[in-house]
Amino acid sequence: MPKTHSTHEAPRSTTGLPPALANINGNVLDDSILKKLVDPDVYYEFARCRATGLPMDRYSRDELAKSIRGWAQSKGCIGFSHWFSPMRGPVHGEKLETFVGVDFETDALVVDLTGRDLFQTETDGSSFPNGGLRKTHEAAAYIGWDTGSPPFVYRQTLYIPSAFVSWNGEALDQKTPLLRADLAVNEQSVRLLHHLGDTDVREVVCNVGWEQEFFLVDREAYLARPDLVATGRTLLGATPMRGQEQSTNYFSKLSPRVNRYIAEAREKMWELGISIH
Fold this sequence. Notes:
Blueprint: H1 19-22, H2 31-37, H3 40-52, H4 58-74, E1 79-84, E2 93-98, E3 100-103, E4 108-111, H5 115-119, E5 120-124, E6 140-145, E7 152-154, E8 157-166, H6 175-195, H7 219-223, H8 226-231, H9 256-271
Parallel strand pairs: 1-8
Antiparallel strand pairs: 1-2, 3-4, 5-6, 6-8, 7-8
Helix pairs in contact: 3-4
């Protein structure tokens, strides 16, 4: 008789892992993948750029962009986006472009991504509240790839995590101050350790974790609250009838609806290399 399988058995991948675990980091271009895509000399140039902040030579930069574009296209991408976190919050911003360029000798459309386009693009800084950091005639702003954050694929788009600054380097986002603070902590920590006699130290690595708690709010209820939409916080309202007396806000049975949401979100986040448990 042919073998039968229970209809309740969860599907399993060819790797022997459940689907949710089989594709961890599957949409992230991390170093292990990048080393396979580019020549050693190109990877060395990129690693030097990432460690020192010095620019790559043009050839290596274009070869890197070509390889990254090929990887993204193999995952169905037709365009790319420099993705940033404007200080207006809580919604991210992006400048979406396609992999289509123009051959100016023949006027034909070509599929392309140059190294220049990969590392930096220009946008309008006046579209985002910025605390008066710029004058009206100084609206230009730049978006630059934070090479410490690997590109990733989401919904047929290659996302490039980026910093967002004004034309003269003033931070217009939440990422740039964090990067600058990380650099300052590293420099001063190394200096202090050298004074204490630990002269072999060359770098101090900072780790910043994200918030361990989050709140689920129905979309209809969220859109009905201007304070939530504008600030991400509840600023107005009455005290709830029930507080934290029974600790049910931390220890209680998850509803099936919430459980399904968390499982789906967790699987997508794992694909993008985001740690969540």
